[in-house]
Amino acid sequence: MSEAVREAPKKERPEFRNIHVTELSNYRMPLAAIVSILHRISGVMMFVLLPFVLYLLQNSLRSEISFAYYEGFVTYPLVKLIILALSWGFLHHLCAGVRHLVMDLHIGLDKHSARKSSATVLVISLVLTALVALKLFGVF
């Protein structure tokens, strides 16, 4: 090797370490990672709230009086927001689950396709949630 090659300055390579909680705001995640994290959050949200939803369903089916009570209960704005959050969780989990099933077939695994499909999942789930919100709050 020549003297010039041996004496060439070496670039400082970036040092990657585990990310601490305080550094999360500085870390820029790709859209596919955000969709994946939201998929997990929506799954946990549905799993945790499923007993509550089933309890409400069971009580609403007991009699006409209990159904009327829970029908009135759902008219409160806070309850509507909770229902909307559950609807978003379900719709996002469904769309992201379909995306993951397609990726299990080895379709859309490259960077460009993954970014495109994750953006599609976000747009579709938010549009469907907006439609649910419009129906829930009585626009149509």
Automatic annotation (TrEMBL):
<keyword id="KW-0472">Membrane</keyword>
<feature type="transmembrane region" description="Helical">
    <location>
        <begin position="78"/>
        <end position="98"/>
    </location>
</feature>
<comment type="function">
    <text>Membrane-anchoring subunit of succinate dehydrogenase (SDH).</text>
</comment>
<dbReference type="InterPro" id="IPR000701">
    <property type="entry name" value="SuccDH_FuR_B_TM-su"/>
</dbReference>
<protein>
    <recommendedName>
        <fullName>Succinate dehydrogenase cytochrome b556 subunit</fullName>
    </recommendedName>
</protein>
<comment type="similarity">
    <text>Belongs to the cytochrome b560 family.</text>
</comment>
<dbReference type="InterPro" id="IPR034804">
    <property type="entry name" value="SQR/QFR_C/D"/>
</dbReference>
<comment type="subunit">
    <text>Part of an enzyme complex containing four subunits: a flavoprotein, an iron-sulfur protein, plus two membrane-anchoring proteins, SdhC and SdhD. The complex can form homotrimers.</text>
</comment>
<keyword id="KW-0479">Metal-binding</keyword>
<keyword id="KW-0349">Heme</keyword>
<dbReference type="Pfam" id="PF01127">
    <property type="entry name" value="Sdh_cyt"/>
</dbReference>
<keyword id="KW-1133">Transmembrane helix</keyword>
<feature type="transmembrane region" description="Helical">
    <location>
        <begin position="37"/>
        <end position="58"/>
    </location>
</feature>
<feature type="transmembrane region" description="Helical">
    <location>
        <begin position="119"/>
        <end position="138"/>
    </location>
</feature>
<keyword id="KW-0408">Iron</keyword>
<keyword id="KW-0812">Transmembrane</keyword>
<dbReference type="InterPro" id="IPR014314">
    <property type="entry name" value="Succ_DH_cytb556"/>
</dbReference>
